[in-house]
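Hey forum,

I'm writing up a methods section and want to include a predicted complex as supplementary material. The small molecule is zinc ion. I've pasted the protein sequence and the SMILES. Can someone with a working setup run it? I'll credit the forum in the acknowledgements.
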Amino acid sequence: MKEELYKILEEAKKEIANIRDNIELEKMKVKFLGKKGPIKDVLSKLGSISEELRKEVGRVANEVKEELTKMIDEAEAHLKKLQKENELKKGVSDISLPLKKPLTGYPHPVSLVVEKMVNIFKSMGYSVADGPELEEEYYNFDMLNIPPHHPARDDHDSFYVMPGMLLRTHTSPVQIRTMKCFKPPIAIVVPGRCYRRDATDATHSHTFHQMEGLVVDKGISFADLKGTLLLWAKMMFGEETQIRLRPDFFPFTEPSAELAVTCPVCKGKKCNVCKHTGWVELMGCGMVDPIVLENCGIDSEVYSGFAFGLGIERVAMTVYGISDIRQFFENDLRLLEQFGK
Ligand SMILES: [Zn+2]
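Reply by user p_vandermeer:
Happy to help. Structure tokens for the complex are below, copy them as they are.
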């Protein structure tokens, strides 16, 4: 009987070598291990032999069964692997594989600051104005009370593309274009790209972004400017933020001031970002010079206005702790990823 069992195993080994698919394998499984299989057949005869021999045959029968089960499992795994390889060759996707995360974009820190500022000023009733980046000298300088040979032009080292035409050095020409087209009351913000022929370093870039604001109406005073910018600072950096105004000079505003806010990073407690002063200078502002209003055909006896402008990168560097302005223009996705989550 033992020989009979070993013979069954040999026969199964021969058969399994020729198996080509799962259906054949299943048939073989039933044939050898099923209720009507040869092993069961041998075991059914155990009653007719001695007890000692019965034990021995039982042991061998179990061995053969285990061996057969193992062979069938291995054959099954092998068939599965072959099937997968065939599917890959045919280009069939394996839907059990984990999904590759699609590459998505992230908002740029400059865009984030512009968006936040635009939303703040929109909530105060301002409109967003736009203008050309390739600008006439007339709008970029002359109309803003910066005639040729004015020393302020030295601060605006410019990219001229032809006589009289340059890449705008600030967003202020859009103020002029707006005042020439629309009658007061005017309340606009102008986010946009500007260019200056600056040598590039950690804090300077030939390309940068500004946001300009302009309000013109009857009875606008410096108090309106101060109140507006204080509200902006609180909405932008937090309720506890304070502002500081110091006299400054710009050709297109009179009087002019430089605005600083309590450091958004250390909240005025002094840190590296605010160079241990507790304040960060962010903005130039002032009352629109009557000459500029008159240039645009607005009666400066009836109307007055205020204007302000700031560098977007400077705000983004302060808020996000970015120490080198060049990082904004390097298109390194790792920088952007930090702000997209
Ligand atoms: Zn600080």
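Some notes you might quote in the supplement: The two ends are 72 Å apart (CA to CA). The CA atoms of residues 244 and 260 lie 5 Å apart.
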